[in-house]
């Protein structure tokens, strides 16, 4: 196979991988949507809960989830939504690795690394 | 509470549709509605705005599954600079007053609107760069997409990558400091500086905004700045609105998108300048 044919093949594979990324993103957005809807429905059943303080600690959100607290489910959904773009970066690394684009594996890994630093800073800067 | 929820839902649908058509985060619509019409604490408005940004971005990403308008390599390469900027902006926001930046970015946006107005009056059709310059070639940033409105595949090259990267770094700082998607600056970096076609710039900007916003959103989330009673109905509306918007976008001519873009950018500029003046 000539180099050019190989390149076209790789571009086709990347286009295919973008569809895979899109599908994984759909699952992430769908999960966030479901959690937010569950919380929203629970809140409609118990509107009084809107006046309670909302949980921001992971442990409190988890406790709220298992006891079906509306605000905890809503916060969980929002957290899932916040992480969908991060998921996209992670999957893109695999996509570039699959088409042997080492330059872009490195570039995308660097983006993920910067993102992790930002998230860790956010968690500890409370 | 029912009225408030309904307002948030409707605002979300409108913000999501406009945001994904224009490659903006939708925060331009969300922030004034929350602060001016619902007299909400600016703290929660900023928190809701960043959720609006992510919901618009992810909502459009889901819709773009079948259409390869966005350029993944351009997005990831430039994301190095926006995330670095967002990290710096988030760290600086603890020490540094944002008032000056409201003015600065407001002025920059007026320049952006003027720039687009000039383009609109100038050439009738969008000019596409056919050949990438050396650096863009090395980074494999050239791309192509199928334009449904023109009915043909458009191949394009890019130029002035360092300039685009610098604007992206600034866009990241604005996002981290002010809790905005700074989509206007991202589109400006790609479309204005690097000569990427507007539709590809807009779609790529949508993807990038979500990644940049995710970093600052976690800070807001754990700070208690994101109120779920406000943010959730809005996010639900946006997911619907952005799905509609990104489908409609491909059938709109680029010149019409620009015409919608100019007043939106001007409103955003005035909004930022007024915010800065509120201190005096």
Automatic annotation (TrEMBL), chain A:
The protein, known as: DUF1634 domain-containing protein
InterPro entries according to UniProt: DUF1634
Any single Pfam family the record assigns to this protein: DUF1634
Species per Swiss-Prot/TrEMBL record: Weissella viridescens (Lactobacillus viridescens)
Domain of life: Bacteria
From TrEMBL, chain B:
Topology of this chain in the membrane: Multi-pass membrane protein
Cellular component GO terms held in the UniProt record: plasma membrane
Record's keyword annotation contains Transmembrane: yes
Keyword flag Transmembrane helix: yes
Membrane spanning stretches: 6-37, 44-64, 70-92, 99-117, 165-185, 206-223, 229-248, 260-278
InterPro entries the record matches: TM_pro_TauE-like (IPR002781), TSUP (IPR052017)
Subcellular location: Cell membrane
Main location: membrane
UniProt keyword list: Cell membrane, Membrane, Transmembrane, Transmembrane helix, Transport
Family indicated by similarity: Belongs to the 4-toluene sulfonate uptake permease (TSUP) (TC 2.A.102) family.
Protein name: Probable membrane transporter protein
Organism: Weissella viridescens (Lactobacillus viridescens)
């Amino acid at each position: 196979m000539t180099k050019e044919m190989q390149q076209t093949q790789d571009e086709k594979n990347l286009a295919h991988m973008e569809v895979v990324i899109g599908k994984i993103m759909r699952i992430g957005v769908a999960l966030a949507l479901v959690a937010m809807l569950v919380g929203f429905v629970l809140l409609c059943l118990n509107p009084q809960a809107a006046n309670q303080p909302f949980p921001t600690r992971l442990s409190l959100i988890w406790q709220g989830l298992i006891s079906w607290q509306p605000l905890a489910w809503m916060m969980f959904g929002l957290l899932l939504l916040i992480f969908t773009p991060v998921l996209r970066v992670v999957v893109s690394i695999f996509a570039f690795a699959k088409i042997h684009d080492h330059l872009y594996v490195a570039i995308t890994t660097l983006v993920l690394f910067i993102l992790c630093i930002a998230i860790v800073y956010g968690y500890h800067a409370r | 509470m029912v009225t408030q929820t309904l307002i948030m839902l409707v605002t979300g649908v409108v913000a999501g549709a406009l945001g994904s058509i224009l490659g903006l985060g939708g925060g331009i619509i969300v922030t004034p509605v929350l602060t001016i019409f619902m007299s909400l604490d600016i703290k929660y408005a900023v928190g809701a705005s960043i959720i609006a940004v992510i919901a618009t971005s992810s909502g459009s990403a889901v819709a773009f599954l079948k259409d390869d308008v966005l350029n993944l390599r351009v997005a990831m390469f430039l994301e190095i600079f926006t995330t670095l900027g967002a990290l710096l902006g988030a760290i600086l926001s603890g020490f540094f007053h944002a008032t000056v930046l409201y003015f600065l970015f407001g002025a920059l946006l007026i320049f952006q609107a003027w720039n687009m107005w000039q383009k609109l009056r100038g050439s009738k059709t969008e000019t596409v760069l056919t050949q990438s310059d050396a650096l863009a070639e090395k980074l494999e940033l050239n791309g192509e997409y199928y334009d449904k409105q023109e009915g043909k595949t458009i191949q394009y090259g890019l130029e002035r990558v360092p300039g685009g990267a610098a604007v992206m770094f600034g866009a990241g700082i604005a996002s981290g400091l002010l809790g905005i998607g700074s989509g206007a600056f991202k589109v400006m970096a790609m479309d204005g500086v690097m000569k990427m076609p507007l539709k590809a710039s807009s779609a790529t900007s949508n993807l990038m905004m979500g990644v940049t916003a995710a970093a600052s959103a976690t800070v807001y989330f754990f700070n208690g700045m994101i109120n779920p009673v406000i943010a959730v109905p809005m996010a639900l509306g946006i997911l619907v609105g952005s799905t509609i918007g990104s489908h409609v976008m491909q059938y709109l001519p680029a010149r019409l998108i620009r015409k919608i873009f100019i007043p939106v950018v001007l409103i955003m500029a005035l909004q930022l300048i007024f915010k800065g003046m509120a201190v005096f």
